[in-house]
Amino acid sequence: MNTQSSTDGVHLTLAQVEALTRRVLLACGVDPRNEAPITASVVAAEAEGVHSHGLARLPTYCEHARIGKIDGKARPVLDSPKPGLVRVDAKAGFAHPAIDFGLPALCEAAKAQGIAALAVTNSYNCGVVGYHVERIAQNGLLALAFVNAPASIAPAGGAKPVFGTNPVAFAVPRVGREPLVLDQSSSVVAKSEIVVHQQRGEAIPLGWALDRDGDPTTDPKAALAGGSMVPSGGYKGAGLALIVEVFAAWLTGASLSIDASSFADNLGGSPRTGQFFIAIDPGELAGEGASSRLERLFDAVAGQPGARLPGERRAAARARTATGGITIPRKLFDTIEAYARPA
After folding, report:
1. Residue 210's pLDDT is what?
2. 112, 165, 210, 236: which could form a disulfide with 187 (CB 3.0–4.6 Å)?
3. Is residue 223 in some structural domain?
């Protein structure tokens, strides 16, 4: 692989990101049928500038596949207990192939029934949640997703983590344009952003996390070593995390966040977390002029000085990285390359 490198960084095109990701996942024993959805998610994250869920996450994926914390060869199993319900058991494997397996059935059921739900259980980190709901919206469906993660948020007023950063994502189809996508964590910032700061040797902003004693910290290592994330908006963020927990963990039959092993270290077995998706066909409900009403709403936001619609930064990043590629720290590149060698 020809790359442009310097002492501090390595420049990669998106095609090189794809080739590198595929090569190391396969080298770590991930089944080729499972590798493709993971690789596509990593490339999409880098293309949109969400580096915390791109190559920065890859060493952990590789490590967990190599040691067996995640079964890289697991084949998801799908069933439909009722016409509007789809369930996929990831079998302690990666979330990406399980979600990819379930999305066509979800979209088909939503178009037939008007609304449908997909419950993914016994899975793992699914990367950028917005990536998944956007694909549902590209099928003309309104999409909502809830995802739980190992506990790292204490309830408002408490000090012991109970909830994960538990993101929620939403996507709505638009006529003649890409879907609008909103993807946000229940915490002030996604935990993966703290991991990226640790990889780069950078301090985190005050207000993102607490250390193990419950005190505010700017040290990413202290935040990750027994600390907790700060919920977004205090009680509101903790309340959102609870809602996500009920949908993504309880309703899917997956591990509660307090019972899930960490996504970040090698301790414990598979996290067995869950993802829950809802897809709605808006055609029968939104009524005549639905598209123009939606754009009127969006124009009311985007037309104000200083305001912007969700997803605008990602769209700009896509345009930039499509031609300019990305640059990652030399240390991260070397770490990834090491996984391409036999264990």
Report:
1. 78
2. 165
3. no
Tokens for 314, please give them: 């990602």
Position 197 confidence tier, pLDDT thresholds 50, 70, 90? confident
Structural domain total, the chain: 1
From CA 57, how far away is CA 51, in angstroms rounded? 8
Tokens at 268, concatenated = 């414990």
Which structure tokens are listed for 3?
């790359």
Interval 229-283: pLDDT, tens: 677 767 788 899 999 999 999 999 999 999 999 998 999 999 999 999 999 999 9
Of residues 46, 48, 193, 245, which has the active-site annotation?
Answer: 193
pLDDT per residue as tens digits for the range 102-136: 999 999 999 999 999 999 999 999 999 999 999 99
Residue 110 has, within 13 A of its CA and on its CB side, a CA count of 25
Neighbours of 83 (CB within 10 A): 10
Identify whether 318 is part of a domain.
Answer: yes
**What is the spatial distance between Cα 117 and Cα 270, in angstroms, rounded to a whole number?**
24
What is the CB neighbour count within 10 angstroms for residue 258? 14
Active site residue 270: no
CB 33 within 8 A of CB 41: no
Q: Is 46 an active-site residue? A: no
* Owning domain of residue 146: 4-187+231-287+312-338
pLDDT of residue 3 exceeding 80, the answer is: no
CB atoms under 10 Å from CB of 177, counted, come to 10
Give the active site residue among 51, 53, 96, 132: 53
Q: pTM above the 0.85 mark?
A: yes
Q: Assign 3-class secondary structure to 125-168.
A: CCCCHHHHHHHHHCCCCEEEEEECCCCCECCCCCCCCCECCCCE
Supply the CATH number for residue 74's domain: 3.30.1370.60
What number of other Cβ atoms are within 10 A of residue 140's Cβ?
A: 16
Q: 255 catalytic, yes or no?
A: no
Residue 217 lies in a domain: no
